[in-house]
Specification:
With 191 residues, the protein is α+β, with helices and mostly antiparallel strands. It has two domains: 7-145, Roll (Phage tail proteins - horseshoe like beta roll fold); 155-189, no CATH class. Helix content is 20%, strand content 32%. It has six helices and nine strands; from the N terminus they run αββββββαβββαααα. The protein has helices at residues 7-14, 80-87, 141-145, 155-161, 171-175, 184-189; strands at residues 19-27, 32-36, 42-44, 47-49, 54-57, 70-76, 95-103, 114-127, 133-140. The longest helix is centred in the first third of the chain and has 8 residues, at 7-14.
């Protein structure tokens, strides 16, 4: 897949003084969860990313065709507020972005970084015991495109979404009719 990389990121990747850090942003309905892979909180894009929670991220298999990439994010030693947001019933389908950003020794960033994954939460698994872990399974945007749609082009569906709208009242009647389009000669004769 072709990716555009900005000049600031290319400069940072070419210097030894910059180090790659993984940033994860999960937009839950409760509040945004922002996590960083190192042991110090960092600020990126005006937002603070909390350290020490990311336990691992699975690889993404890239192919040339459009398939739905999936990753797993493991969180360990999770704050109770984050755990409550992740176990909430409305957590599924929360947007998730995983980015690789480059920082120098003074924690100054250069460029926009590299987008590793963009998708949404598919499921979560919580393991409690001596050490509690939350594994979040994520699906890419392609997975939502291949999801079957439950909506139909019918008057009942239109009335459910827009009560009183009569735009689809004849949809079932038109579906069974044979519609014959005139040939291009008809348009020339009737100009």
């Amino acid at each position: 897949m072709t990716r555009l990389i900005d000049q600031g990121t290319i400069r940072a990747m070419s210097k030894d003084s910059y180090r790659p850090i993984v940033l994860i942003e999960i937009e839950t309905p409760s509040f945004p969860i922002r996590l960083v892979s190192n042991m110090q909180d960092v600020v990126f894009g005006g937002n603070t990313y909390t350290s020490g929670v990311i336990g691992g991220i699975s690889d993404i298999a890239e192919t040339t065709d459009l398939n739905d990439a999936q990753i797993s994010i493991i969180l360990s030693g999770v704050d109770p507020a984050i755990k409550a947001a992740v176990v909430a019933p409305d957590f599924i389908n929360s947007p998730i972005t995983v980015r690789i950003q480059f920082f120098d020794e003074q924690w100054v960033t250069s460029g926009d970084g590299l987008i590793y994954f963009v998708g949404s939460a598919a499921s979560q698994n919580i393991a409690s015991g001596n050490s509690s872990e939350i594994t979040i399974s994520c699906k890419s945007k392609i997975a939502t495109l291949s999801r079957p749609r439950s909506e139909r082009y019918s008057d009942q569906e239109q009335q459910a979404q827009y009560p009183g709208d009569l735009g689809m009242q004849y949809a079932t009647e038109l579906a069974s009719r044979l519609i014959v389009w005139p040939a291009k000669e008809w348009f020339k004769e009737n100009e």
